[in-house]
Structures are given as structure tokens and as C-alpha cells.
Amino acid sequence: MKEQQFQEKIDLEKKIEPKDWMPVDYRKHLIRQISQHAHSEIIGMQPEGNWISRAPSLRAKMILLAKVQDEAGHGLYLYSACETLGISREELVEQLQDGKAKYSSIFNYPTLSWADMGAVGWLVDGAAIVNQVSLQRTSYGPYSRGMVKICKEESFHQRQGYEIMADMANGTPQQKEMAQDALNRFWWPSIMMFGPQDSDSPRTGNAMKWKIKRQFNDELRQKFIDQTVGQAEVIGLTIPDPDLKWNEEKGHYDFGEMDWDEFWSVVNGNGPCNIQRLEHHKKAHSDGKWVREAAKDYSKKQKSTETN
Amino acid sequence: MNLLNYTLRIADSSLISAQRLSEWCSKGPTLEEDIALSNISLDLFGQANGFLEYASEIDGSKSADDFAFKRNEREFYNLKITEQENGHFGDTIARLFFCSAFNFLFYTELSKSKDETLSALAAKSLKEVKYHLKHSKSWMIRLGDGTEESKLKIQESLNSIWQFTGEFFEMDKIDIEISDSGIGVNNTSLKEEWNKIVNDTLDQAKLTRPEDMYMQTGSKKGLHTECLGHLLSEMQYLPRAYPDAKW
Fold this sequence. Notes:
The complex is a heterodimer.
Chain A: H1 2-11, H2 24-43, H3 45-49, H4 58-83, H5 89-98, H6 115-135, H7 141-169, H8 173-191, H9 217-234, E1 245-247, E2 252-254, H10 260-267, H11 274-287, H12 289-307
Antiparallel strand pairs in A: 1-2
Helix pairs in contact in A: 2-4, 4-7, 6-7, 6-8, 6-9, 7-8
Chain B: H1 2-22, H2 31-59, H3 64-69, H4 80-83, H5 89-110, H6 116-144, H7 148-161, H8 173-180, H9 191-204, H10 227-235, H11 237-241
């Protein structure tokens, strides 16, 4: 009965709110998805954070730092959205550090040149936006509202990434080489951000019926590729896919086969930075333990003075 | 020429403090604090940018970026305290607190400068450093009056950074000249107020004011600690390695 009412609400495009009844699996799916998204924002601070100290101009430095700070802010909203489902931030962080919760595999690739700051903004944030725009219509209220807010900032990130890429591509031969190299390294991992092909996606299950997910992986991936190819052409860079070709009949680009062995290998922990990213997070967390304890003790003391 | 040097001193202290604080990004003890430190760093980069733009205007040939990325160690005039390594969170907070208390007093005075640009830049910076002072002060108190461990740690941080606080109040020929002309600040006159802020905070934090000791000096002549060279070599790497590139 309850389940039927729940589904009716969803079918009418009404949002589910924290205090509403929801199926156990709906809650579980959301916690998994939102926390994965939050962890991605937080771990995603590292590859870009890697270049803050070396950003080549004052302007570039301020933009990059503001961008990474935005990501921390997105992580914060998303952890809060997740907490409305009855799980604490501490538990979520624990799941990340234990490896029980995942984050986007894209962040397990290293950022090796300044052009990577362009590629990450243009491609990685670009792919993220395509996904997030679709999630603005997700059925869970706090998640949907979080996405609306996040999308606004992400589109600014994507533009700044593209601007770096364009400047590099039009710069000295060395800069252009860095830009092409960054595109070569980030292209395939970016299009794999949309997850496995729908025919192989293990978790889609009820996500479409419950309108947690609004579009299929392959549909979103196609949308991203279609919009990105032209952008690469404009700045004179070549997408590293010999099979990429406009298909007049379909009105979409055809593209080559993705390396799913690599995808699953990185998802399962065997990528170039999987260990480093988690170690970095754990170290910051354990280095900060004494600070968090001090703040807690201090606030306890303050409360007890107030009550006395 | 002296106005250029005077402006660079202010700009460099902001720039180097900002660069140091930005190293905290993704390493903060909480997500909220990570955001706060990045925020302060961004304010300081903004301030540095403003003062460097002015330096560029006075100089007439170098850009703000040239000043930031193409000068050598001996041509930087930031206070030595700003270039000190971050250490643990308490070390960073102690450094930030001392600097913010000074900046607050310094910009309050500089905002009255006869030089309109300096006065406007100071007024804008003042709004921001008020928050930096509030934030770092509240951490001084929380760490000092938190756990046994935090008290010990922050006290050690204070003791070790104390030697760098003498430079705030130094006046050399350039400072005297600029201050006498109504453009600059008499740093010596800020000491009493600074002591008040520090003593009051340390009282609240139940911490002990370090004994007077040997005080570091030299930054006004471009003489620095060994920390600065490493910071600059990282910060300036791209423009130095690719001098023809535009970014």
C-alpha cells in the first residue's frame, strides 16, 4: 500500500522528502549514490589541488583555488543531503576510507601538467555536468536541490577548464603538445565516467522506475561526446579516437570501443592513483584528529560553564 | 622608487602567506576548516594581486605576474613569518593569528593613507583581515583550552614562531620616509595594540606568552629564511621553465 502511494508520487514527478516513507532499497540506493558523489567531490580536490602551488599566474591560481574550494563545498552539501537519509558524515567517511564506498574513478588518474587543469575542467567537469543536469530532476528532494546548486558552479568550472585548454592549444608548440597530451590521457577515462554500458550496468535496477536516475548511461555519454567533439575542433585539438565519425542517419557521433578491462581494473582499486588518493585522505583525517578533539572538548567545556 | 619598495613589502607578505595557506587545500582537519583556510588564502591572493597591480603601475614596465613569478629570493620583501612552513594545524594557526592581528592594525592605519590607491586597497583588505583575525583567534582559544594535547601543541607553536614577530614593528629608512610623508604606517606605534590583542587572546586561551628572545630580522633587505627559496621554486616553476608561454 505504502509502496504504491510512494510510486504514485514519483510517477506524478513529486519529490520525496526526508520524512516521507520510502522503500528500504530506495534509501539504500540513494545513500550509495549520493555518498559516492560526495566522495568524488572530496577526492576530486586532490588532482587539481596538485597544481595550486604551481599555477602559472595570479589569476589562474585564484581561479583554481576557488574551484577546488567549490568542490569542498559541493562535498559538504552532498554529505548533508546524505545525512537526511539517516547516516552520519563520520560513517560515510569511514566507508570511504575502508574502501566500502566508491568515488569516481576519473580521480585515480594523475595530473601531470598544467594542461591537465584544462582537461579536468573541460572534460571531467563537462561530463559531470551532463550527468548532474539530468539529476536535477531526480526524485529525492534534497539531492535534486543540491544538484541545481552544484550545476550552476560546475558550468563555470567547465568554462574555465576549456579556457585553459584553448590558451594552451593556441600557445607555444610546447603548450600545444601539453594540451594534446592531456586530451589524450583524459578522453577515454572521461567518457567512461558515465559508467558501464547499460547492458552491463549492475545497479540500474529500480533506479529508473524510482526516478533516482533519469537517463541511461549510454544516452548521457552520447550527449557528452556530441557536444565535446566540436569544442575540440574549435581549438585545434584531436580527440584520440580513430573511429569517431559523424553519423548522419542517427544524428550522433559514432565512437570507438572503450577499454572496459581498464575501467573495471581502476574501479576495483588498480589504477595509477587509487592508493595515493585514499592515503592522502586518511593522512589528512588522522593529522586532524587532535584538532577535532580539541574543538569538541572546548565546546563541551563551554556548554558546561553555561549550564553551571 | 621607495613607494614601489613599500608597496612590494605589503604585496609580498600577502602573496607568500596566501601561497603557504593554499597548501592546506584538501588537507584540513575538517571539511569546513579546509574551506575556511582556502577562503583566507584566496583573500590574501586577492590582496597581493591588488598591491602588485599598484606596484606594476608605479614601476611602469613589469606586470603584477612578473613581480610574483620572475623575481628572485633576494628581491622579495615579505616578512619572514609569512614564509615559514605550515607545520601542523596549530603552527599554521599561530602564524595566521600573529599576522592577522598585525594586518588588522596595519590596514586600519594604512586606510588613512594620503595615497588614494593604498588607502583603498587597505580599506578593502581590512574587511577581510578582520575575519582572518576572528577565525584564527577562535582557534587559538579552542586549541589552548581544548585537550591537554592541543594545549601543549599550540603552546609549542607559539614558542617557535615568536622569534618572527619582531619584524612586524621594525622601521627602516624607507618606512620612516613613507610614514613621515603621510602615506605609510608607523609600525612601531602598532606594537602596543598588537600586544593587547595577543595578551587578551592568550589569556582566554589559557596559554603563556613566550619570553622575549632573539628576534629575526632582514626581510626588508630581502634577506630570508631557507624556506622562501623552496616556496618560490615551486610557485615560479611554470613561468620560469616556459618563459615564452602565455597562460
